[in-house]
Design goal:
The complex is a heterodimer of chains A (518) and B (227). In chain A, α3 (32-51) packs across α7 (125-144) and α7 packs antiparallel against α13 (323-355). Chain A is globular, with a radius of gyration of 27 Å. Chain A has helices spanning 2-11, 13-30, 32-51, 70-81, 85-99, 108-123, 125-144, 156-159, 166-202, 208-255, 258-281, 296-317, 323-355, 360-366, 371-377, 382-412, 421-441, 444-453, 455-477; strands at 483-486, 492-497. Chain A has a single domain, classed as Amino acid/polyamine transporter I (Up-down Bundle), CATH 1.20.1740. Chain A starts with a helix and ends in a 21-residue tail after the last strand. Chain A is an all-alpha fold. Helices cover 7% and strands 40% of the residues of chain B. Chain B starts with a helix and ends in a 6-residue tail after the last helix. In chain B, a hairpin with a 4-residue loop joins β11 and β12. Chain B is built from two helices and 13 strands; from the N terminus they run αβββββββββββββα. Chain B has helices spanning 5-10, 213-221; strands spanning 13-20, 23-32, 38-41, 53-57, 71-83, 88-93, 97-100, 117-122, 134-145, 151-155, 167-170, 175-183, 207-211. Chain B folds into two domains: 5-103, Thrombin, subunit H, CATH 2.40.10.10; 117-216, Trypsin-like serine proteases (Thrombin, subunit H). The chains are: A mainly alpha (518), B mainly beta (227). Chains A and B meet through β1 and β2 of A and α1, β1, β2, β4 and β5 of B. β1 (483-486) of chain A pairs antiparallel with β7 (97-100) of chain B.
């Protein structure tokens, strides 16, 4: 079926594009208000769970110990959740909002404030709340209620035991296909971006051949990592990935406008928190523009479409944490790290634009895949840092590719958190193959639209999930009692009479002697 | 997380009865531990006679109930396994029932600290024709071992004969830690109801239970797992 889909999308990518691009367009135009409401409801719900008594529930039962240390847990959360996007949009997005302010502003300062606030909005609490919700639901229903660790599980409150039948299989197949194409398309776009970077830096030609080689490299690293499993493969790569990223971050921080970044970090967060109610509920109602279609609403649809995959991965690595710990970990820490990242890169870019002679924004907004390298070029030691940049890009890709394969493995193994190795090999390689096929045959963009378009129906599912998760948690926390119900008929009634009290017997070597009683 | 551990385990407790012609006689307490209808109790109250055993549930114990149940709706049980060595018996409801048990039933005896709060549940005056369910509280007084290796938990409340076979529950983690056997008597084997002995040094207000691990062991011998 997947092969069929691939062939279909290669040969009919025009048709597919014709179907899904207008569909996605229609969704972002007409359902913007729905996405805006949904993400806010989810954020409020998640915050409520965090501060409520449900926070005490431990995922995996009271006796469970966390599988991973807190540091590697954060590393995996961050690598799977945001990954590659922060590298490019960390530089490019504030530039876009700065030169083209979504809400009209009076001066440059306000434009800069607003640019950072919108960037934070798109990458901040709301997106992590979506991941947290679905990750929590999966982890809770699977570790505490004994259901399989699979997408079908979150439909349990809706479908009941029917999730074990044809419906459940259908859901899992759809989730597998969506995840596979999601990862494959971003892999496809990713290698194009890496290729663009390489050609900009070293003059390597931009061709399908080079991109194929890149796919093979990334896929083989990811395959090794998946086969080695969570503990020795994915975890180590994630930690390495984060270390590389920190190195890059530290470099830009030190060589960039350090004081400007330090000042900006607190100010950006403050401005974001101050404006969060305004910008997170803003629907362009009175402006009558459609800026949000390609930004806010697109992001919401994108996060939601990705959430089954990321949520699944988050759930898999979060066994043994309490719900409060889980939500703090998934909601607050990655958000803060993202903010730090966005401030370091975004503010450096803003600094270059505002006080560094200008012209930077224009270059960046026309060339998003190169934005990171364009920024590094303006800083000292740019050959070394550009290589580091390429490494970070590759490692971000590998970590999202291997966690994607892991999720598909778990789903196709019927919810087994440790799927068999041949299966891991198969899916990891297939992922690369699909990406390669799409790259050669075309159809990447159309498929990506199709994946993002699933955000709408899945948004509805997420809202229902809030209710069913609350219900499940309630039942779990409430007074659990024994219940005994007769299948048919009532037990016979009897009179009770009194009887003698029997003596205690313990079989033992030495019999008790009556004499000792006296 | 529960309101109190009593609420969790009240529903588990059954009156253990033996059928005679058109009536039944009271034997003690038994408690449910498994969704498939398995109960645990103390062996000695069955007295090696495995026939005609029945259990009945208390009427809603949260309500004010009559002291005496003249008539009771009883269900037959079979004896699956007994262990006179450790004084534990496994019973099974004969009729098909839809049963739900709470999570986390069984506690750890070895880590249990002296002074831990305990409750035990049963039907204390069943032998005196009063069939109300009662919960008693105590603390873990002592952990002792019999000559045959049986681990006993001593607690400082005087159980009445009808409470025998009921669960001993740790308040802290709300899990069953023992099966109540009877009042402790400082005789050579440690245990007796010392009914015929009224001398104060023998008639203690201390009671004892056998460790729940023997019950868990027997269930796992039949191939059942309980959490």
């Amino acid at each position: 079926m997947i092969i069929g889909f691939v062939i279909f999308s290669i040969f009919f990518n025009e048709i597919l594009g014709d179907i899904f691009n207008p569909l996605l367009n229609g969704i972002t135009t007409n359902a913007g208000w729905f996405f805006t409401l949904t993400v806010n409801v989810i954020l409020l719900f998640v915050l409520y769970l965090m501060f409520s008594r449900y926070g005490d529930i431990r995922l995996g039962g009271d006796d469970a110990d966390p599988d991973f240390s807190t540091t590697s847990w954060f590393a995996m959360l961050f690598s799977a959740g945001m990954g590659i996007g922060v590298l490019f949009y960390g530089v490019a997005e504030p530039m876009f909002h700065f030169i083209n302010p979504p809400i009209p502003v009076a001066n440059q300062t306000e434009a800069a404030h607003q640019a950072m606030a919108f960037t934070f909005l798109h990458w901040g609490l709301h997106s992590w709340a979506i991941y947290a919700l679905i990750g929590l639901a999966l982890a809770f229903f699977s570790f505490n209620k004994g259901l399989p660790l699979s997408i079908r599980t979150i439909f349990y409150p809706l479908l009941g035991d029917r999730i074990n039948g044809a419906w459940g299989n259908l859901i899992d197949i759809l989730a597998t296909v969506a995840t596979l194409f999601g990862v494959a398309t971003s892999l496809g776009f990713g290698v194009q971006q890496i290729n663009a970077g390489l050609s900009h830096l070293f003059g390597i030609e931009q061709s399908t051949g080079v991109q194929m080689v890149l796919i093979v490299i990334i896929t083989s690293i990811a395959t090794v990592s998946v086969v080695k499993g969570l503990d020795s493969g994915i975890k180590k790569l994630s930690v390495l990935n984060i270390r590389l990223a920190i190195l890059l971050l530290a470099f830009v921080f030190i060589c960039g406008p350090t004081m400007f970044i330090l000042n900006g970090f607190a100010e950006n967060i403050g401005y974001y928190l101050h404006k969060i109610t305004v910008i997170s509920t803003w629907n362009e109602t009175f402006e009558n523009t459609n800026w949000q279609n390609t930004w806010t609403v697109f992001y919401w649809a994108w996060w939601i479409a990705w959430s089954p995959f990321v949520g699944m991965f988050i759930a898999r690595v979060s066994r043994g944490r309490t719900i409060r710990e889980f939500l703090m970990g998934v909601l607050c820490v990655p958000t803060l790290v993202t903010f730090l990242w966005m401030t370091v890169f975004g503010n450096t870019a803003l600094y270059l634009e505002m006080f560094g002679g200008g012209g930077f924004a224009e270059v960046v907004t026309q060339n998003i895949p190169l934005s990171l390298f364009l920024l590094l070029e303006r800083l000292p030691l740019n050959t070394i840092t550009s290589i580091l940049g390429v490494l970070v890009v590759v490692s971000f890709f590998v970590t999202s590719s291997d966690s994607g394969s892991m999720v598909i493995d778990i789903i196709t193994a019927g919810g087994n958190p440790d799927p068999p190795i041949p299966q891991r090999l198969f899916w990891a390689i297939l992922e690369g193959a699909v990406a390669a096929a799409l790259l050669v045959g075309g159809g990447l963009a159309a498929l990506q639209s199709a994946v993002v378009a699933t955000g709408l129906p899945f948004g509805v599912v997420l809202l229902v999930l809030c209710f069913s998760l609350k219900k499940g948690l309630n039942e779990y926390l409430g007074v659990q009692t024994f219940s005994v119900k007769a299948k048919k008929g009532k037990p016979k009634k009897f009179q009770i009479e009194s009887a003698d009290i029997p003596p205690v017997i313990f079989k033992k070597k030495k019999q008790k002697k009556d004499a000792s009683n006296v | 997380m529960y309101k109190n551990p009593g609420q969790k385990f009240i529903g588990a407790c059954f009156i253990l009865l033996r059928k005679r012609e058109n009536s039944v006689v009271f034997l003690g307490t038994a408690f449910l531990v498994h969704d498939e209808g398995y109960l645990l109790t103390a062996t000695h109250i069955i007295e090696n006679d495995f026939e005609n055993l029945m259990v009945a549930r208390a009427r809603d114990p949260e309500d004010f109930t009559r002291l005496s149940l003249d008539e009771v709706a009883a269900v037959s049980v079979e004896v699956v396994k007994t262990d006179a060595y450790h004084n534990v018996a496994v019973l099974k409801l004969k009729k098909g029932f839809v049963i739900e048990t709470p999570d986390y039933l069984i506690g750890q005896v070895d880590n249990l600290k002296l002074g831990t709060g305990l409750i035990n549940i049963g039907f204390p005056y069943g032998h005196q024709d009063m069939h109300m369910l009662a919960i008693r509280s105590s603390v873990l007084s002592s952990k002792v071992k019999l000559d045959n290796g049986t681990k006993l938990l001593l607690f400082d409340s005087m159980v009445h004969d009808g409470m025998t076979g009921g669960p001993l529950v740790s308040i802290e983690d709300e899990r069953i830690v023992g099966i109540v056997v009877g009042r402790f008597s400082p005789l050579d084997d440690g245990g007796d109801f010392s009914r015929e002995n009224n001398s104060p040094e023998y008639d203690t207000s201390m009671s004892y239970a056998v460790s729940i691990e023997y019950g868990v062991q027997m269930l796992s011998d039949i191939g059942l797992e309980i959490s």
